[in-house]
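Q: Given only this backbone (189 positions), what sequence would you predict?
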């Protein structure tokens, strides 16, 4: 009887690999790419669809904080908070932390460079969940953050591009911050 759960899990993984080969390839790329990156490649300002992150070395660890948001305040059509109020970490499991602004929020904990890759825990303010995580820069120069529970293959990867690439959403986000990073000077409106 004890073998059935293991066999079932192996069957699910085999189906997952067969039906979702890109997930398997991405998980393998995690291992291969992470080993090739040097520890400084992740440092800088990175743009996603809705935010800009500042990744920095801190002592022997890594920090990633929310530098800018597309919507730093609640919109009138949102039910999470009053329109115009600063967006808060309102989904945090810890009630005492729910009044923290998302802007400036530290997302990483326990991040260390080990076995040729950055790994630790990452907090997702959209869900209030914390995941085991890996971070690397791929061959095209994009920052990739993979969050997962259990094994990396069963996670999700979020991708960021250097702010200096000036993707279309960056000028709008930079217009809402006090200080423009030097790497984004050419992107400001």
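A: Predicted residues:
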């Amino acid at each position: 009887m004890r073998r059935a759960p293991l066999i079932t899990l192996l069957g699910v993984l085999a189906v997952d690999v067969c039906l979702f080969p890109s997930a398997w390839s991405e998980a393998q790329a995690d291992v291969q790419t992470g080993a090739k990156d040097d520890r400084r490649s992740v440092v800088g300002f990175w743009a996603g669809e809705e935010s800009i992150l500042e990744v920095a070395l801190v002592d022997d660890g890594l920090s990633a904080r929310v530098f800018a948001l597309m919507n730093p305040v609640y919109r009138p059509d949102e039910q999470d908070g009053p329109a115009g109020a600063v967006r808060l970490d309102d989904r945090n499991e810890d009630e005492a932390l729910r009044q923290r602004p998302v802007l400036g929020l530290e997302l990483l904990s326990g991040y260390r460079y080990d076995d040729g890759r950055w790994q630790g825990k990452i907090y997702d303010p959209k869900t209030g969940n914390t995941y085991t995580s890996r971070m690397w820069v791929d061959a095209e120069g994009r920052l990739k953050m993979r969050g997962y529970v259990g094994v990396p293959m069963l996670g999700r990867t979020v991708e960021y591009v250097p702010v200096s690439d000036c993707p279309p959403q960056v000028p709008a986000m930079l217009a809402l911050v006090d200080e423009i990073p030097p790497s984004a000077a050419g992107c400001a409106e």
